[in-house]
Amino acid sequence: MARLCWSSVTLLLVLVTLCLLPLTAHSSGCECSEEESGIDKTESRKLHIVAIFAILAASTIGCSIPALGRWFPAISPEKDYFFLIKAFAAGVILATGFIHILPDAIEKLTSPCLPESPWQDFPFAGFGAMIAAIGTLMMDTMATGYFSRQHFKKAASAVNDLEATVEAEQGHVDHVHMHTHASHGHAHGAAMMVDAETNGDAQLIRNRVISKVLELGIIVHSVIIGMSVGASDTPSTIRPLIGALTFHQFFEGLGLGSCIAQAKFNLKSVVIMSIFFSLTTPAGIVIGIGIASSYNENSHTALIVEGLLDSVSAGILIYMSLVDLLAADFMNPRVQNRGMLQLLINIFLLLGAGLMSLLAKWA
Q1: What percent of the chain has pLDDT over 90?
Q2: Of 172, 227, 235, 244, which is least packed with CB atoms within 10 Å of its CB?
Q3: Residue 28, exposed/middle/buried by CB under 10 A (0-12, 13-18, 19+)?
Q4: Which of the 8 DSSP states describes residue 94?
Q5: First-to-last C-alpha distance (Å) of the chain
């Protein structure tokens, strides 16, 4: 039921994004629109096909690497190496929000093509990111609380059933005090075991919520950047984007895959989430190709819709990387008690953020 609920929310968000973006094709352009030079539709279509398969492959590989911990214990979530992988991935996601997405949102929502009021009078990009971060916090805590309460209710019910069973079995020998006392001891010991298991499951629930929310933030931006590539008919613009976006999606997939691996989903769920992430950017490219003839990136609707969606995506990713990924791992006792591991995860964090920031030169 929980999996169905999360899948429905994710699918709904994608459908809303896909329905809103094509509306940009019907909006009139503004006076500052510029004609593209070097347009070659035939060459562009070839590059679009290359982009679809290259990005699909990179996304799939990046998202699948952390899952290999099921078969390669060295990179499993229980090993110290996993902290390094996750720190690198968190740096990638943080740089994606700050360096790639938020500046795009600011550029679109402050474009001279938009009316001066209200778009030039208020920082809507920052406001959208802030609201998205707060909304993510609320959704994060409410979802974790809801699933935790449901799990605790089941655990408490299991403890009560266990104690009731023991008491019923020993009820006919209540005159044997020592035996009855020992039986209750076994019941309480079992209850303690259930409590310990429940605490471990609470962290597992937390990891699963994190992976779901993170995927929501990533897929919105993935559709937008895919659509931008597909709508372009200029080979000189598309070529550098193919390489940059291939690495971009690989690193993002690595970050998402790390969270999915730590959540310990079953193999079917891992495959579904990985495929869903891998297909979003190629799907955006296909949509962009479909509306390329009438798409105007400087239209009012295009600028507003893409700008607001980018700002929301940036807020989600920035919150998730800082709060749910970095803070949790950096404050983990295993990291705090080992100076070398603490140094290494800082280095990997800077490496991930640095490499993703460098990609902003091309995409």
Answers
A1: 18
A2: 172
A3: exposed
A4: H
A5: 39
CA nearest neighbour of 321 among 66, 89, 36 = 89
Kind and range of the H or E run holding 285: helix 267-290
Read off the pLDDT band of 151 (50, 70, 90).
Answer: low
C-alpha to C-alpha distance for 363 and 230, rounded to whole angstroms:
14
257: buried, middle or exposed (CB in 10 Å: 19+, 13-18, 0-12)?
buried
Length of the chain: 363
* Residue range 212-260, pLDDT digits in tens: 888 888 888 788 888 888 888 888 888 888 888 888 888 888 888 888 8
Q: Residue 332: what residue type? A: N
The answer on pLDDT for 29 being more than 60 is no
Q: Are 232 and 47 in contact (CB under 8 A)?
A: no
- Sign of torsion over alpha carbons 165, 167, 170, 171: negative
